[in-house]
Design goal:
Elements lengths: L1 H19 L8 H7 L19 H8 L16 H4 L13 H4 L8
InterPro entries: pH-resp_palC
Length: 107
């Protein structure tokens, strides 16, 4: 008996609350799906089209490279293999060995 009274009271209260709030009818699933975009139209995959190059560009690509960037022996990393005897310490500026040598017995 008490339980029925509580349920009726809650139903009246909830109906009152639901009637006060602006509500909309829930549309059917089919109509909602018809209005939603799939998102696949945005990312259409186009067939690959290779770039067409002029004859001069193709000939330049096939030719041996010009040696304008060849600096000779100046910046070669082969110096490590030659075994430099007066090499700078790792991480030091070039020529820093002469400025910071341990000339004293103090640490």
């Amino acid at each position: 008996m008490e339980e029925t009274r509580v349920i009726e009271h809650l139903e009246v209260k909830w109906t009152k609350i639901n009637d006060l709030v602006t509500t909309q009818a829930i549309p059917t699933t089919g109509s909602v799906l018809a209005q939603m975009p799939s998102g696949r139209e945005i990312h259409t995959i186009k067939p690959f089209q290779p770039a067409e190059l002029d004859r001069s560009v193709l000939e330049a690509a096939r030719a041996p490279p010009d040696r304008s960037d060849d600096f000779g022996e100046a910046l070669s990393s082969d110096d490590e293999a030659k075994g430099q005897q007066h090499a700078d310490p790792p991480g030091a500026y070039p020529g820093a060995r002469q400025d910071h040598h341990g000339g004293s017995s103090y640490y």
